[in-house]
Structure of Alpha/beta-hydrolase:
Amino acid sequence: MPLRISALLSIVVTVATAANQTIGAAEIVSRKSHIVPGPLRVTELIFSVPLDYNNPGGETINIFGRSVSNYAVPIVPSDEEEEEDPLPYLVFLAGGPGFGNPEPQNAPLTSTALEEGYQVLYLDHRGTGLSTPVSTNMLQQLGDEDAQVDYLRLMRQDNTVRDCEAVRKALNAGLSDNKAKWSIFGQSYGGFVALSYLSFHPEGLREVFLTGGLAPVGKTAEQVYQSLYPRVMKRNKAYYKKYPEDVANVRQIANYIESQGGSVDLPAGGSLTVPRLMTMGIDFGGAGGFTSVHATIKKMKTALDQFGFLTRASLTPMETFTTYDDNIIYAILHEAIYTDGPGDVSNWASDRVARQQNLFSWLSSNTSISANSSEPLLFAGENIFPFFFDTYPELIPLKGVANKLAAIDDWTPIYDQKQLAKNEVPVYAVSYVDDLYVDYEYAKDTAELLGNVKKWETNGIPHSGLRTNTEEVLTKIWGLRNDVMD
């Protein structure tokens, strides 16, 4: 299925499960290096791996990665080419699910990790970035809804871990077992992947770093959202305290949408409904989130005041506020990252819990928005709702697929709690007390379960700390590793 590229280097390596069974092979099909300002050597790598590790001889997909290391022209060139062991890898596992990695020179981890003596490998999770990316058109080429569901079931963190192990053995072929191990750094959902890695392939790991990534191991999707909504309500209260004028402004925009039949066409397709408007609260958990939401509301209110309708310029921010059209895995598999094994079914947990608790008036189709009400309309947080598959153009054709995925009750396991409890791989974790996206209490439970973990907690940095408070976060996490914490 993937586009095959002429191989510059080809290595086939067998990867084994914890049960010591052969499950597939990784092949490096392309390796190209170039120098970027820094100066840094960036090597682009494409690997071929099994789509389904239970069928290692079957269909393959590509995994794309970029490794980065310092580059310098030697002062005195050597007359002989000497083979040296490569620098140890630190693999960055991005948040999501559903997102690829930035260019290494633009990533906050790169410079400090290079200073610590690593080369950094940015791997795009399967189905994301340039790793045989999932899209609606691509899925529809696979066949009917059941075929698409079968494919998407293979895009979760358990198979991402298998991909990582296949890639590790391909890159480190010929090294001793100790030198062939690598380190991983999981941000947010990347930490969920890291915990799955510790569950199923700890033998490949030297150490693990986590920032906002202590997943709610042992908690159901319903429990995750039951714990989330009180934090969402708290953020709503803080938002309207900072921008009290938006109580009326949000209602003005909502009433206009209702006056247009409940939906306003967006410039690039799809529609703006009141429920979609209220999902902007997903930004409430990051630095500057309140400001970005207010700026968008202000732009729409100004258009209504001046022209009586929402202009193109006021609507375009709504198309990029949440990137479900470009990163469909984030919408269609988000609740599946909490379903851990047979019997664990998501069944639109976010929507169910919100309705059970009667949190959002806009979720009810029988409720109209009162223009004269003084009560604020409440924003949602990091929630996935079925109506996404009615309002986002890339998601609309996948509504049936999404409903089938939500009903699956025979998912594969994503964690092994017994293995995590006896873990010996050093884990260094930064945990955010006021994290909107990863529940702090559940993170504490996971840290107590996990063996050999050191943790630094803060209530002064948001979930986006790796990006917005880079120096402080990385100083603390390297301090945990280097044992210099007071």
Q: What stands out?
A: The two ends are 53 Å apart (CA to CA). The chain is about 35% helix and 15% strand. The longest strand covers residues 22-36.
